[in-house]
Amino acid sequence: MDYDITIIGSGPAGYVSAIRAGQLGMKVALIEKNRVGGLCLNWGCIPSKAMIESAKFYRRVVKDAAKFGIEGIDRKKISFNYTKAMNRANSIVKRLTKGIEFLLKKNNVELILGEARILDEHNVSAGNRLLSSKYILIATGSTFKPITPGREYETSIQQFYEMKDMPERIVIYGYDAPSVEVAQMLAFIDRKVTLLVPNDTIMPLADDFLKDYALRLLKKEKIDVLLGATRDKIKVEKGKITYEDRVIEYDLLLNLSNRQAILPQTDIDLRMDVDFLWTNDNLQTSVDNIFAAGDVNGKSRFAHISSAEGLFVINWISGVKKELDFSKFPLNMYTHPEMAQIGLTEQQLRERGIDYKVSEFSLSANGKALAEGSNEGVVRILSETKYGEVLGVQIVADDATDMISEAAAYLQLESTIYDVASTVHAHPTISEAFMEAGFEAVDKAIHK
Q1: Can you give the residue ranges of every domain in the chain?
Q2: Residue-wise pLDDT tens digits, 62-105
């Protein structure tokens, strides 16, 4: 065998697993047909968060500068320069891409640019080369399913984040966290946004508490949210969409709907699970030495979970065989304020017949949140009633996507609500809300 492992796709699952395999001394080939970093780095996670930050900055200057004692700003002269904001996002992407290429080289990963074709369980062709390896890892990601069969009139996420300007009327067809994030971002820069949802709810993986909170945020920004708009119920034409008795005019239709796997060319039969590659609990496909990690297998669409799956595969083939516990992976939503959750939701606890308690603490009573002017939010802990074990956490806060890591540690260590209450947090910090929610579960929050 020429290589220990051949990895197809260099997104969060592919490049992370390649680096880890290289660190363990494996001989690694990493094949990429487009850009290192995949969809997440180049057209998703990173540019979207950069643009969200620009939009938040703009909104805060316009709305809150006077509250913070800043005078002399003429609101009529303030505008959002989409091109400059996008240039900033692209510069961040370029820096991170170079960093990944450096790490691949540092860890002796051979990067091969070209389109891969799986010939059999050990051989892959790419770039006029034949690569033979003991294992193959498919990490080719996924794409949004077309709104109409020919994708007429729709804009892809790749096209969206390569635009230099943004039109006024935008329809987003989607339901998950990215749809909510982009809708809010566009509303912040004064665009008219409609969120057309092909489900009966938004963010289906989120606790109902967070779903309702997100809907309130969208309503606050005057974003129209139309639920139940399945493909068979909408008529898409150039410049307008008809749904029931509504005609929605648009300048741009962004497709962020449900996804399907991007599959490499292959001469062997790999089992599918509807729109994704089937894998067992060890992320093996129907061919034992071929693995699939990341959203190509449909288990998750979050980049950090894709990376965790890639690391899991490398550990597994190295002899470190542990369970992949998805309940202990955080789910982040980069709204404003941010939202995050980990563990079981209230709905799951009820379905499993588990007796539980909800304890929460509002940021409206948190000193640092008030000082920052970011006191909208809450820390919410779900714990079982007998022993007090923490089973789930939901956070709404400006830094919820960072704060959730503390909750992840609690779940990983099977901590109880008493552990949370007895953990001393620095003052003043937003994270004090954890301690307060812990006290609320044990007896009574100090500042409530």
Answers
A1: 3-144+260-326, 154-257, 337-442
A2: 888 888 999 888 888 899 999 999 999 999 999 999 999 999 99
What would the mean pLDDT of 274-297 be, rounded to a whole number? 97
Q: What is the architecture of the domain spanning 337-442? A: 2-Layer Sandwich (3.30)
264 phi and psi, to 5 degrees?
A: -70, 160
Is domain 154-257 given the CATH code 3.40.50.300 in the classification? Answer: no
CB burial readout 188-205, b (16+ within 10 A) else e:
bbebbbbbbbbbeebbee
For residue 127, the model assigns a pLDDT of 83
Question: Do 9 and 296 form a contact (C-beta atoms < 8 A)?
Answer: yes
State both tokens at 302. 């979050």
In order of 79, 312, 316, 322, the CA distances from 319 in angstroms are 56, 11, 5, 9
Token pair, residue 116, equals 């891969």
Query: pTM for the complete prediction?
Result: 0.93
Domains 154-257 and 337-442 share a fold: no
Cα atoms in the Cβ-side hemisphere of radius 13 Å centred on 318: 17
Checking if the pLDDT of 445 tops 70, the result is no
Give Cβ neighbours of residue 220 (< 8 Å, ≥ 6 apart): none
CA 289 to chain centre: 28
Q: Output the DSSP codes for 87-119.
A: HHHHHHHHHHHHHHHHHHHHTTEEEEES--EE-
Judged against a pLDDT cut of 80, whether residue 447 lies above it is answered with no
Is CATH 3.50.50.60 the classification given to domain 3-144+260-326?
yes
User: What's residue 434's pLDDT?
Assistant: 94
Name which of 317, 346, 343 is nearest 328 in CA terms. Answer: 343
